[in-house]
Amino acid sequence: MDSSALPKSPQRANPNILITGTPGTGKTTTAEMVALAAELKKITVGDLVKERKLHDGYNDDMDTYWLNEDKVVDEMEAMMADGGMCIDFHTCGFFPERWFDLVVVLRADTKKVYDRLEARGYKQNKISENVECEIMQVVLDEAHESYKPELILELQSNTVEDMEENVEKIARRVDEFRRKHAQKL
Ligand code: ADP
Question: What is the pTM for the complete model shown?
Answer without folding.
Answer: 0.94
